[in-house]
Amino acid sequence: AILGPPEVNITSCPNCINITIKLPTPHFRNEGKLESLIDIYDEMDYNITLKSLDGEHKRPRQKTTEELFSTVIGELYPSRNYCVSVAVSASLNRHFIPSPWKCVTADSEAQQGYHEVAVAGAVCVSLIIVAVLKCVHAAGFIFQKISLPQTLV
């Protein structure tokens, strides 16, 4: 039997990419129940190939006992496009179809930091405006009390 392709989703994180892998569903039935690859093989191997401007890099083979799992590839260049393909195999079965390439751009730390600074700056400016308005109001320049004519007092 040929294994694969697995379902692969990737998202970006600061200087890294997060890869979610779902093992392919085999078509083996045991007493009418569809079995998973983990039911059949106990443990699966997976290989991730990372493609960028520098070319293709095969990552070391990893093992999993989960149907659905995530892994992070870190220490990547920010704002650079990376593509990933995953192949799943078993010690007893080395016939596989790798996943189609999925691509994403790695986030940069600076962009996230900039966003936090922008939000903090907006909060500070708002607080300063509120404080100034409060002082001006307390000094009586805004919403001065209307003095009623003597006849109504």
TrEMBL record:
Which protein are we looking at? INRA2 protein
Q: Which InterPro entries match?
A: FN3_sf, Ig-like_fold, Interferon/interleukin_rcp_dom, Type-II_Cytokine-TF_Rcpt
GO cellular component terms, semicolon-separated: plasma membrane
Organism lineage: Eukaryota, Metazoa, Chordata, Craniata, Vertebrata
Q: Which gene encodes it?
A: Ifnar2
A single GO molecular function, which one?
Answer: interleukin-22 receptor activity
* Pfam families the UniProt entry points to: Interfer-bind
Domain Interferon/interleukin receptor residues, every copy: 2-105
